[in-house]
Automatic annotation (TrEMBL), chain A:
Family statement: Belongs to the binding-protein-dependent transport system permease family.
Superkingdom to which the source organism belongs: Bacteria
Full protein name: Carbohydrate ABC transporter permease
Gene3D superfamilies tied to this protein: MetI-like
Residues covered by the ABC transmembrane type-1 domain: 71-279
InterPro entries associated with the record: MetI-like, MetI-like_sf
Alphabetical list of Pfam families matching this protein: BPD_transp_1 (PF00528)
Cell membrane in keyword set: yes
Coiled-coil spans in chain: 221-248
Cellular compartment(s): Cell membrane
Single biological process term from Gene Ontology: transmembrane transport
Transmembrane segments: 9-32, 70-95, 107-126, 138-159, 179-203, 262-279
From TrEMBL, chain B:
Annotated InterPro entries: ABC_transporter_permease, MetI-like, MetI-like_sf
Secreted among keywords: no
Source species, domain of life: Bacteria
Source organism of this protein record: Ructibacterium gallinarum
Residues covered by the ABC transmembrane type-1 domain: 87-307
GO cellular component, one term: plasma membrane
GO biological process, any: transmembrane transport
Lineage of the organism: Bacteria, Bacillati, Bacillota, Clostridia, Eubacteriales
Protein's name according to its UniProt entry: Sugar ABC transporter permease
Length: 294, 321
């Protein structure tokens, strides 16, 4: 069904306004990061750099170790985490999608329960730290996100609707084992679904700050998001303490400028903004097939 | 005699079949094993920890070693003023997010689906979904670009365009309910509409054509065809949303206000309170945190089951389980 001409025009105007509201904050941030620091002091932030300057980017890459390290941590966690979790989730949900698998009822229930009930953050934190000793390890930023009930449900439905039973049967007749059937026959058909989960998990790992905020103290294990968070918190504290400290002005001199902060923010979100449009079509397709109630 | 041997044979046969069956089931079971282990480690083990709410937590003694403490953690919690504030905040914000979110999500999906130009519709959709993929840390920086006291965009507009006085946003609680609600929908509205949009694209076009022949207007078609078809999916979303009524997004309430103490009256929700008490450490703070966690888990679970029961009673097709 399509809108009549007049309502179509009104809708377009509303959406155009929403478009601007959505994009404006990001453009503003980019503009700040590209504005000369003196221009910011004189005129404040504006949507177009009054005096164009790449000084902020040069500043943050002047001592690149911290940022490059944080990038390395983020990339390692994202690649390992997204790969492992996509594999684990796909395997689990594929088994659940098989009607002839005896454990499917119990194992569906097993993950479904975790969606309804959990032990709470305190218990989770204590188990992770005092039982698994995850504090200050890179694994603390990977292991807790490996399973996800929501994705299991989406993928199970996806396998059920897109992989014909006859293909599995024919594989069995040819004498292929379950693992070979999965890797050689099922995965090629299920690429859109698997790619959706992989993309979501990539973004989840890339954007994560919750696990570092809980488990990471060592600066060399900071990921990008956590680095941003720590930086903001330090500036906040410096500003608050400035009144009471004798050498405050000296310390404040070393604080990154507004532009440098925003530049770091752009550096952290850049890859997502660039990659996102290419994947968007893919994941909508995957979600659409996977989320039909089944 | 003969009968006996026959049954013996079938028993053996059955045994062989079941052995084969186990053998054929084994690979599928092995596929689920990593998932079983991870879920056990990070979801089931902490479930035992729910008893922490009734213990005097001592990190060195662990979950089971700590001494029982009765309901003291809860009585401390409810003696403080914190309990009222955070429960009020959590419920009010999340209720707004669930109800307004469903309305906005459905409205946006319908709007996008009836745009005449499909290409612009796709572009709008792409842009509206995008903020979902930004982390709350990034969002907190974007918000700071507007609300910074000295240089922020909003203060600049207030002083230069309207000639008003700059507002020190991060110490003025009265604005923050609006700011947080706006930020939430700015970030999640587009993503929330995907599921409705895909449901709309599954509706049989013939229904609309038949309605047109009967002379139905656009609004009537939306009211009598689109909305009823979306009922099930809206119900499922609401059931799932109700589970977070006592929880919800931690980042929105912690990162976006920059953890500003002056705002805590309107930004302290249950997850924020729990986090702050965990980082504060010490048996007292951990006790308060675990009592709060307990309330969050138990009410969350009860609410989902309750919401599902209500929906099932009204319309059995729309329930989640």
């Amino acid at each position: 069904m399509l809108a009549e001409k007049k309502s179509n025009l009104i809708l377009n105007i509303i959406f155009a306004i929403m478009f601007v509201v959505t994009v404006f904050p990001i453009l503003l941030t980019i503009s700040i990061s590209l504005t000369d620091s003196r221009a910011i002091m004189d005129h404040g932030y504006s949507i177009w750099p009054e005096t164009f300057s790449t000084e902020a980017y040069r500043y943050i890459f002047k001592t690149p170790e911290t940022i490059l390290r944080a990038y390395a941590v983020t990339i390692f966690v994202t690649v390992v985490g997204a790969t492992l979790s996509t594999l684990i989730i796909s395997l689990y949900s594929y088994a659940l999608s098989r009607k002839d698998f005896k454990g499917r009822k119990v194992l569906t229930f097993y993950v479904f329960i975790t969606m309804l009930f959990n032990g709470g953050t305190v218990a989770w934190y204590i188990v992770c730290t005092s039982l698994y000793h995850l504090s200050n390890t890179v694994w603390s930023m990977i292991l807790p996100y490996l399973m996800n009930t929501w994705y299991i449900i989406i993928m199970r439905t996806f396998f059920q609707t897109s992989v014909p039973v006859s293909i599995i049967e024919s594989g069995k007749l040819d004498g292929a084992g379950e693992w070979r059937i999965f890797f050689e026959l099922v995965i090629p058909i299920a690429v859109p679904g698997i790619a959706t989960i992989a993309l979501f998990q990539t973004l989840n790992y890339w954007n994560d700050w919750w696990l570092p905020i809980m488990f990471i103290v060592k600066p060399e294990l900071y990921n990008l998001q956590f680095l941003l968070q720590r930086m903001m918190q330090n500036i906040q504290q410096l500003n608050e303490n400035a009144k009471y400290m004798a050498n405050a002005s000296e310390q404040l001199m070393n604080v990154p400028t507004d532009g440098a902060r925003m530049a770091l923010c752009i550096v952290a979100m850049g890859p997502i903004l660039i990659v996102y449009p290419f994947f968007q079509k893919y994941f909508i397709q995957g979600l659409t097939i996977g989320s039909i109630k089944g | 005699m003969r009968v006996k041997s026959k049954t013996k044979q079938t028993v053996i046969k059955n045994k062989r079949i079941s052995a084969e069956k186990i053998k054929s089931q084994l690979p599928l079971f092995m596929m689920t094993l990593p998932g079983i282990i991870i879920t056990f480690m990070f979801a089931y083990m902490p479930m035992f920890g729910i008893i922490l709410a009734f213990k005097k937590i001592n990190l060195r003694q662990g979950i089971f070693g700590s001494d029982w403490y009765g309901l003291k953690n809860f009585s401390y919690l409810f003696k403080s003023n914190d309990a009222y504030i955070m429960i009020r905040n959590t419920i009010c914000y999340n209720l707004t997010f669930i109800v307004v979110g469903a309305v906005l999500g459905v409205a946006l999906a319908i709007g996008l689906s009836i745009l005449r130009n499909k290409r612009t519709s796709k572009v709008f959709q792409t842009v509206f979904i995008m903020p979902h993929f930004l982390s709350m840390i990034i969002v907190s920086y974007l918000v700071l670009a507007f609300l910074n006291m000295e240089n922020g965009f909003l203060n600049r507009v207030i002083t230069m365009v309207f000639g008003g006085d700059p507002v020190n946003w991060y110490v003025e609680p009265k604005w923050w309910p609006f700011i947080l609600i706006f930020v939430n929908f700015w970030k999640e509205m587009g993503f929330g509409s995907i599921i409705y949009l895909s449901a709309i694209s599954g509706i049989d076009m013939q229904l609309y054509e038949a309605a047109s022949i009967d002379g139905a207007s656009g609004w009537q078609k939306i009211w009598h065809i689109t909305l009823p078809m979306l009922k099930t999916i809206v119900c499922i979303q609401i059931i799932l949303g109700v589970g977070s009524l006592f929880g919800g997004d931690f980042g929105l309430f912690y990162q976006v206000p920059m953890d500003s103490g002056a705002l805590s009256e309107v930004t302290t929700t249950i997850p924020v309170y729990v986090y702050k008490n965990i980082t504060a450490g010490g048996p007292r703070a951990l006790g308060l945190a675990s009592a709060t966690s307990f309330i969050q888990s138990v009410t969350g679970c009860a609410l989902v089951i309750f919401a599902n029961a209500v929906v099932r009673k009204l319309d059995s097709d729309s329930s989640l389980f």
